[in-house]
């Protein structure tokens, strides 16, 4: 089966991680955990944590600048900015408008996507549509999180898992040589909304001093519920995206999966009958950076030469919502 012609392609990638690195052994000093528990259960050894005063939009703008440089473009060339994040600078306005301001972009649409760890794949899917229908030529898609400020640092079941960072791509029109986004599919299932949630601080539960005391404004997660559905849905979405692309898993050169847990990635690899060596892995260094994890891993693998022009790459991500998706790209 032949693949559909891509309508958009990745022109450049970029990423940014805060300088401060927190090791598992540092966390042993603040919660009842151990380096061995964290690394054996998740694959995480370190994570980068933003400095005081560093904002989500600072991380995002740094990644965005780097992607623009790689694409040989400037902010003036952009027609749209899409930011996947659930940890923006302020509840209102969007993180994207702060990024627009920091990049000095024109009066173009700039908006956020709230799909947690799937935010980047959602953003990519939306950008592809705008380029396909000719409304936009160059779209900056960023995945960024500053989760360290919305974690409960007394809850060992969540605080050891996450890190801060940003990754970005610039999408532009495909040039007819087969390179670009071949298929991209997104999904949500609201029945699991409460398995991964920040319960307080919205209109359902406005914040009170008691709510803050109980960390209702921080991330709450039923880890095992998410684990099971992650393995199942990442695998099924990947197979659907591959099928839409007219490909099989064996046609892939690389998989850049959301870096939430090495055990989840290993089980997805088994379900796709692919060796783990085919996966770009950096969870050891960054932990789970939610929507930033795929574009950071992609950028690293492009820059160090693992991912090469013309290779077939699969992205797959799942997070709060639950929301998930997968994309097949020829680089
Ligand atoms: N250190 C030491 N012990 C711990 C820790 C810790 N940091 N955290 C939990 N434990 C304990 C538990 O209390 C439990 O103890 P018990 O047996 O005495 O009750 C034991 O370890 C086992 O806990 P489980 O929750 O069963 O551990 P599991 O193997 O499921 O691993 C984890 C937990 C890592 C959270 C896993 O379930 C997971 O990765 N889930 C998916 C996370 C994910 O993908 N999230 C989605 C994206 S995030 C987003 O959208 C923002």
TrEMBL record:
The annotated active site, in chain numbering, is 117, 258, 288
Q: What is its EC number?
A: 2.3.1.180
The segment(s) forming the Beta-ketoacyl-[acyl-carrier-protein] synthase III C-terminal domain are 242-331
Pfam families linked to this entry? ACP_syn_III, ACP_syn_III_C
Its localization reads: Cytoplasm
Key words, A-Z: Acyltransferase, Cytoplasm, Fatty acid biosynthesis, Fatty acid metabolism, Lipid biosynthesis, Lipid metabolism, Multifunctional enzyme, Transferase
For the region ACP-binding, what residue ranges are annotated? 259-263
GO (cellular component) term, any one: cytoplasm
Top enzyme class? transferase
* BP term (GO), one: fatty acid biosynthetic process
Q: What does UniProt say about this protein's domains? A: The last Arg residue of the ACP-binding site is essential for the weak association between ACP/AcpP and FabH.
Q: Give the protein's function.
A: Catalyzes the condensation reaction of fatty acid synthesis by the addition to an acyl acceptor of two carbons from malonyl-ACP. Catalyzes the first condensation reaction which initiates fatty acid synthesis and may therefore play a role in governing the total rate of fatty acid production. Possesses both acetoacetyl-ACP synthase and acetyl transacylase activities. Its substrate specificity determines the biosynthesis of branched-chain and/or straight-chain of fatty acids.
What protein name is recorded for this chain?
Beta-ketoacyl-[acyl-carrier-protein] synthase III
**Source organism per UniProt:** Sorangium cellulosum (strain So ce56) (Polyangium cellulosum (strain So ce56))
């Amino acid at each position: 089966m032949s693949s559909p012609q891509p309508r958009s392609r990745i022109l450049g990638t970029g990423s940014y991680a805060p300088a401060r690195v927190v090791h598992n052994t540092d966390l042993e000093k603040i919660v009842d955990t151990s380096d061995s528990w964290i690394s054996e259960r998740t694959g995480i050894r370190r994570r980068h944590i933003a400095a005081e005063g560093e904002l989500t939009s600072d991380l995002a703008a740094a990644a965005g600048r780097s992607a623009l440089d790689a694409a040989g473009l400037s902010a003036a060339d952009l027609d749209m900015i899409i930011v996947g994040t659930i940890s923006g600078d302020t509840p209102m306005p969007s993180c994207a408008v702060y990024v627009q301001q920091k990049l000095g972009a024109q009066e173009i649409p700039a908006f956020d996507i709230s799909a947690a760890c799937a935010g980047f794949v959602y953003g990519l899917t939306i950008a592809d549509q705008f380029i396909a229908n000719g409304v936009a030529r160059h779209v900056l898609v960023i995945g960024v999180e500053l989760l360290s400020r919305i974690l409960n640092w007394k809850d060992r079941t969540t605080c050891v898992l996450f890190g801060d960072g940003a990754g970005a791509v610039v999408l532009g029109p495909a040039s007819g040589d087969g390179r670009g986004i071949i298929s991209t599919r997104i999904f949500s299932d609201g029945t699991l909304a409460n398995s991964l949630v920040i319960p307080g601080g919205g209109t359902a539960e406005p914040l009170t001093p008691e709510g803050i005391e109980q960390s209702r404004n921080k991330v709450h997660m039923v880890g095992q519920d998410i684990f099971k559905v992650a393995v199942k849905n990442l695998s099924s979405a990947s197979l659907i995206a591959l099928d839409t692309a007219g490909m099989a898993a064996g046609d892939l050169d690389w998989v850049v999966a959301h870096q939430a847990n090495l055990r989840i990635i290993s089980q997805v690899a088994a379900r796709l009958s692919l060796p783990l060596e085919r996966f770009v892995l950096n969870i050891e260094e960054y932990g789970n950076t939610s929507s930033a994890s795929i574009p950071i891993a992609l950028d690293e693998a492009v820059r160090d030469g693992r991912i090469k022009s013309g290779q077939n790459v699969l992205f797959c991500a799942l997070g709060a919502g639950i929301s998930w998706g997968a994309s097949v790209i020829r680089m």
